[in-house]
Design brief:
Blueprint (H helix, E strand, L loop, with lengths): L3 E6 L3 H12 L1 H8 L3 E7 L3 H8 L4 E3 L2 H5 L6 E4 L6 H11 L3 E4 L2 H18 L3 E2 L10 H8 L5 E7 L2 H13 L3 H11 L7 H4 L2 H15 L9 E2 L7 H9 L2 E11 L4 E11 L11 E8 L3 E8 L3 H18 L30 E11 L4 H11 L4 E6 L8 E8 L2 E2 H12 L4 E10 L5
Parallel strand pairs: 1-2, 1-4, 2-3, 4-5, 5-6, 8-10, 10-17
Antiparallel strand pairs: 7-9, 7-11, 9-10, 11-12, 13-15, 13-16, 13-17, 14-15
Helix pairs in contact: 1-13, 5-6, 6-11, 8-9, 14-15
Length: 437
């Protein structure tokens, strides 16, 4: 049978892995796809690297637009990244009637609605398994495997860099800045780690999962994003003593009022499987009404794990290449005309439990003043721990765990608590999730 011809844009880490795995497992992949899949052209500014990786097995060019305009190319793999030229290339490929495979979560989270609409109008597919959680087939699981379910919520460790940093902070008691330098030395963190440590990368991914789970347009601009750069190692220690682990989670929930879409450090009970995901690994927990909780675990980045997802998309497109576009799996799981524009809740409207750490004067009546403020805001306390002050100290740490409440009530209480004369500095607030039913 005639092979499917693929044009690869970008021969970096993931591109190189994709080329290698496709070559190495060619026979197996052909048996699964029903026809050979071959990369016929690679575009990369570093042509020397491209020639080295491909070994003369295909054409090499530095002109990516020549690839998306090549009539011999059936599928374009976009691994350039970013929002600029990558978008132009993807849109041009779609306009030329070519299917697209991409690992570019930033592009899809910010321009996905436009891209999917163009693909729908042209009758081509845009596949993006590699854009979320690297080698974990979470997109396929949510889009196809859990089709029978009304998905209630998704919570995921979907950034390996931050998970490595938090694991090291907990294991070794080190400060964030120290561990970040180590993560950069090991190659887990970029020279500019902002997208990772400030939660933006995770927000791109949870935005896509929210659309797949609930059938809503992509709405990255409405996500609440809070990273780990200001997280104090003392809170990691206190959380551990209370039976919790702190992880940077991407969370999306369907509620009666709308959809929660948020990324932030979160206390999770240490007994949960997801709380024990360490190092650079990823894990995604999905709650469906029929299946209950399902957990997906694996490598969230790397050359061949991500290539595994890229090639899975190539195989899917190859299988469906000649199918009627109306009978293909929709890009965002739901039929395009069945997407609903549910409101994305502001963070103040989110309901959660909370961890509060206060530095207070070691005096009588301090706890009574604080609990009175919480009661006035209708906040119920679950647990209180007061650390004994050190020898000669006149201040102590006070840790409060609350029952579920709306975040705007917590914020109002914190303002009043910080105004108390016996409270020193700012109150540290972290959200808590049970992640169980």
């Amino acid at each position: 049978m005639k092979p499917i011809n693929v044009g690869l844009l970008g021969i970096g880490t993931v591109g190189g892995g994709t080329f290698a795995v496709l070559q190495r497992n060619a026979e197996e992949i052909t048996r699964r796809a029903g026809r050979p899949i071959r990369i016929v052209v690679v575009a990369d500014k570093n042509m020397a690297l491209a020639r080295q990786v491909t070994g003369g097995a295909c054409r090499v060019t530095e002109d990516a637009f020549s690839v998306v305009n090549d009539p011999e190319v059936d599928i374009v793999i976009e691994l350039i990244g970013g929002y600029g030229v990558a978008k132009d290339l993807v849109m041009q490929a779609i306009a030329n009637g070519k299917h697209v495979v991409t690992a570019n979560k930033a592009l899809l989270a910010t321009n996905g609605n436009e891209i999917f609409k163009a693909a729908q109008d042209k009758g081509v597919m845009v596949a993006f398994e590699a854009a979320v959680a690297g080698g974990i087939p979470i997109v396929k699981a949510v889009r196809e495997g859990l089709t029978a379910n009304r998905i209630e919520w998704i919570a995921g460790i979907i950034n390996g860099t931050t998970n490595f940093i938090l694991s090291e902070m907990r294991d070794k008691g080190l400060a964030f800045d120290t561990v970040l330098k180590e993560a950069q030395r090991l190659g887990y963190a970029e020279a500019d780690p902002t997208f990772d440590v400030e939660g933006v990368d995770a927000a791109h991914k949870i935005t896509l999962l929210a659309s797949l789970a609930f059938g809503i347009p992509v709405q990255f601009d409405k996500a609440y994003i809070e990273g780990i750069s200001k997280l104090d190692s003392i809170d990691i220690r206190y959380a551990e003593q209370l039976g919790y682990r702190i992880k940077l989670l991407g969370i999306t929930k369907r509620t009666e009022e709308g959809v929660e879409l948020r990324v932030h450090p979160t206390l999770i009970p240490a007994k949960r499987l997801i709380a024990n995901v360490e190092g650079p690994m990823n894990a995604v927990l999905v709650q469906g009404d029929a299946v209950g909780s399902t957990l997906y675990y694996g490598k969230g980045a790397g050359a061949e794990p991500t290539a595994s997802s890229v090639i899975a998309d190539l195989v899917d497109i190859t299988r469906m290449h000649t199918a009627d576009p109306e009978n293909r799996v929709p890009h965002l799981a739901f039929q395009p005309d069945a997407l609903v524009d549910l409101p994305i809740l502001a963070i103040g409207e989110v309901i959660s439990s909370y961890y509060l750490r206060l530095r207070v004067a070691d005096k009588m009546g301090v706890l009574a003043d604080i609990t009175r403020i919480l009661a006035d805001e209708q906040i119920s306390i679950d647990a209180v721990i007061q650390k004994e002050p050190g020898e000669g100290e006149t201040q102590a740490d006070l840790i409060l765990l609350t029952h579920q409440t709306r975040e705007k009530y917590i914020n109002a209480a914190i303002v009043k608590i910080e105004a108390l004369g016996v409270v020193v500095g700012k109150v540290t607030m972290l959200r808590m999730e049970e992640l169980g039913k």
